[in-house]
From TrEMBL:
It comes from the Bacteria. Residues 58-233 form the Multidrug resistance protein MdtA-like barrel-sandwich hybrid domain. PANTHER family: BLL5650 PROTEIN (PTHR32347:SF23), EFFLUX SYSTEM COMPONENT YKNX-RELATED (PTHR32347). InterPro entries: MdtA-like_BSH, UPF0194_transport. It is found in: Cell envelope. Residues 101-175 form a coiled coil. This is Secretion protein HlyD. The chain crosses the membrane at residues 15-35. It holds the Pfam family BSH_RND. GO terms for cellular component: cell envelope. The keyword Nucleotide-binding does not apply. Keywords: Coiled coil, Membrane, Transmembrane, Transmembrane helix. It comes from Sphingobium yanoikuyae (Sphingomonas yanoikuyae).
Amino acid sequence: MAEASDAPKKSVLPVRPILILVAVIAVGIALWLFLRPGERKGDEVFTGYVVSDNIYMSSPVAGTLTKVAVQRGQRVAAGDALFRIDPTVRAAETEQARAAIATNEAQVSQQQANLARARSDLAAAQADADRAGAEYRRLAAAQREKPGSVAQLDLDQARASYDGALRKRDAARTQIGSATGAIDAALAQVRQSQAGLTSAERQLDDLAPVAPAAGRVEDVMFRRGESVTPNAPVVSIVPDGQVKVRFYVSQALVSRYQPGRKVVISCDGCPAGMTAIVEFVANEPEYTPPVIYSLDAREKLVFLVEALPKDPRKLLPGQPVDVAPSASDLPAR
């Protein structure tokens, strides 16, 4: 027992101070890893995505698709042909409209000839009326000056001739009015026929539409030989001018992203240095959409912002992108 008590005793360090020291060191390492230079990017890095306002080209009438000039993914320029619907029916309607115009123009010519004859008849009738009237007035004046100097039969015949000439004159005036009205009606028919021709020609052109703007063909809904219903989309185009970058900015930072502000964007496989100009900022905030939930943004109020990219042809609708005020703020890819 004496030997056991004479053995040297081992020193024991306090446990609590050691645990506190370890915890302090761990917290310090974590803060250093989180805040060390070169690792944490700028706070104004937003996750967004590419959207577009597609143009859907359709036919105003039903028909058979006789030609498809584009395919999915193809780039088109403004004015490029897209597809063609069988024009047989519309071409026949166009010819009918042209024939109606020719018929109505012939009616106008005929009524103009009638008007010319009516005016000639009026001039002749007026001349006859003037002569008959002068003769009747001469005889009547002579009879008043010297009663019995003119036979009553001659006076009656002169009066009858004068009345007949007046009736012919009035009839000629009526013919002029009728001819004028007929010309107006015929001209109205010509205008109506011309409007029908314009409509038929426009519909004929609509059967072979062209791209309204430069862009990329997103989809082709029908194949050659298929029947197309009226106003059914046949080709969908993503126009270059309608591609936008949509992202969400917190209410604390939204004042920095007003229309006209330049931002930089990046995405997987995209060239460096891409930029966009803010075009739209929502007036009211909303909760962060689930598609861009993150530890920093969850359950925060954000404002929708849309920006027009400088080179929209390098972006695809639905593509996720990062948005920042400068290239140095973007995360490495």
